[in-house]
Amino acid sequence: MKILIVGSGGREHALAWKIAQSPKVEKIYCAPGNAGIAEYAECVDITAMEFDKLAAFAKEKEIDLTVIGMDDPLVGGIVDVFEAQGLRVFGPRKNAAILEGSKAFSKDLMKKYDIPTAAYENFDDPEKALAYLEHADFPIVLKADGLALGKGVLICNTLEEAKDGVKSIMLDKKFGSAGNQMVIEEFMTGREVSVLSFVDGKTIRIMTSAQDHKRALDGDQGLNTGGMGTFSPSPFYTEEVDAFCRKYIYQKTVDAMAAEGREFKGIIFFGLMLTPKGPKVLEYNARFGDPEAQVVLPRMKNDIIDVFEACVDGTLDQIELEFEDNAAVCVVLASDGYPVKYDKGLEIRGLENFKDKEGYYVFHAGTKFKDGKIVTNGGRVLGVVATGDDLKKARANAYEAVKLVDFDNKYCRSDIGKAIDEA
């Protein structure tokens, strides 16, 4: 088979690495890719939002399956463009990707179908949002409705903070058109857990659990980022929690989308909060998480091509997912100053140290080739991953692996997976 991956981050590198293991795959292309992905795929100079060019390329190269890694093209309708031209593609159509594309839509869906989530109100008028805050309980959560690179959520502890937040989202357009509408919801307490799943429109298969670290600085301080590290599985995602979610959240979400005429095929990423009153949905995503994919895929035993094809063909009920009985931890190496301002073009040293090192992986997020060398090309540069028999061992291995690679301005959190110690 010939496979095309659309995207350029650490998630897409992890996908390329996993896809390359399939005996069914002869050739992988990635558009636009990065310096790490180039080890497994031929990188193509087409951006993720150039749908017609991507479809034309897929036809020209007789691509058997295209895998969409990123949220923007999914929400923009790339799957519809490919399907209209008779091309096989893994991912939800535009009318289903709205599950991630609009927080207001997803909150209304959960309310209508009685899927547990935080109490909320939607607003498209900043004056009404400001008036609502006058009688709200604090802390409170403000969410830009649309896509905002994982950064469109503000937790506000006071009325003044919340008013400033409404202004920055809806009036100053800090997150662009994503802030044309916004959701104000109750602040939930508890452990956050990420659960990824494959869906074929009717059947859902749950992958292993993970936990992300969104804040830039140790102790969950600093600004929200795209993710500074992850671990899998989450010790807080117990059999009891899993049973509850399967009954009241997972299948109900798939059925709700089908009932709305929005059949969902692809990945549903459930962002959960394990509250004192039980698990509730924080958010949905319509693709693999980044960096969740980097800890989930190395633990997955299945040939991922079999699973992708079952999702496309509606035969997922014939697949049972299998995962290694181990753990994985990912520490993101960022450019100091991320997510605000940072330098690019700095040489990365030591990548060769990961060659043939069992259980150690380095997935490229923001890298490129320059003058024959691999240099930094983003805020999040690398995802360093290590496995171990248990979470504590995997965490120790991951921080050993961090020492194997270096670049000027290298920064990472020192407490990824520290919650493991409290489990």
UniProtKB/TrEMBL annotation:
PROSITE patterns: ATP_GRASP, GARS. It comes from the Bacteria. Its EC number is 6.3.4.13. It is an enzyme of class 6 (ligase). Transmembrane segments: none annotated. The keyword ATP-binding applies. It catalyses: 5-phospho-beta-D-ribosylamine + glycine + ATP = N(1)-(5-phospho-beta-D-ribosyl)glycinamide + ADP + phosphate + H(+). Pathway: Purine metabolism; IMP biosynthesis via de novo pathway; N(1)-(5-phospho-D-ribosyl)glycinamide from 5-phospho-alpha-D-ribose 1-diphosphate: step 2/2. Residues 107-316 form the ATP-grasp domain. One of its GO terms (biological process) is purine nucleobase biosynthetic process. It holds the Pfam family GARS_N. Keywords: ATP-binding, Ligase, Manganese, Metal-binding, Nucleotide-binding, Purine biosynthesis. One of its GO terms (molecular function) is metal ion binding. Its cofactor is Mn(2+); Mg(2+). Belongs to the GARS family. NCBIfam families: purD (TIGR00877). This is Phosphoribosylamine--glycine ligase.
